[in-house]
Known about the structure:
single chain, alpha/beta, Rossmann fold, Dihydrodipicolinate Reductase, domain 2, 2 domains, eight-stranded mixed beta sheet, six-stranded parallel beta sheet, 9 helices, about 25% strand, globular
Amino acid sequence: MKFLIAGLGSIGRRHFRNLRALGENDILLYRTHKATLPDDELAGVPVETDLRAALAHKPDAVIVANPTALHLDVAIPAAEAGSHLFLEKPISHSMEGVDKLRGAVAANGVRCLVGFQFRFHPGIRKIKGILDEGGIGVPVSVRAEWGEYLPGWHPWEDYRTSYAARPDLGGGVVLTLCHPLDYLRMLLGEVEVAWSAVSHLGLGLAVEDTAEIGLRFASGAVGSVHLDYVRRPGKHALEIVGTEGTITWDNADGVARIFRAESAQWETYPPFDYGRGASSAQGEPPVFERNMMFVDQMRHFVAVVRGDEREVCTLDDGIRALELCLDVLHGNAKPGNG
């Protein structure tokens, strides 16, 4: 299969390396040469600087990894050309063009995977299984927190000029760190924004650097999400309270924990106690590495393109996540009556 990668920033480079690690070497690059990373690892890989010329190579699949505000500029022509899509999250920064993309995907039989990689985290998957089997009774509340210091993300560039800090490129903490809005919906079902507040206080950027979001699920459960670009040390954690127990997860170690009221004990599930398993040298405990999510995600995408698997995160999932983000940013809260 031939893959076209559009966008060669840090996430585009990660997808490039992972494709190669999976044995996929027929790769074409579409780029504008605005990336701030060195090009050594890309030496010898064919490049096009015009999208029409790139699509004329008839790639089986296009990986859309350019800045958020430019996603649909690539995704729509690629879908119209019949290429399957890996579309980085969020799918865009507005709803403009989303219906056109959806129409092009449907009209051309295109399969589209949206890049919410936490759906591939073994801890999140374990939690999904526990909830589906009623392991903590009825979930009644949830809290997700994710804070990281933006100036430390990409030491090779000025964070103030990065896509995450620029409104014209679809930056801001809500869009950039929108993963919880996707995985909470996956875990607990359909959800609406009940209230939200954002702030620019932390870094003084043109985009929001802090957000607090209240959620109301169709099931009746309530929840909240905290996001920020300011926190040191960083934290990404989750807690779900149910009528018969509590589930916690911490991205720092990848461990899922469940307290069952019936046994009055905690159960601990490190990332490799379930899923595919792993081993390490000298008998040390296995360590979960962040890139494993991305490798599993790309392996899944290759299978999707081949027609062997159905998308774990569909275009409709990506559209719903974007709608939630825009509700937060535009104050379109939908308070319940309860």
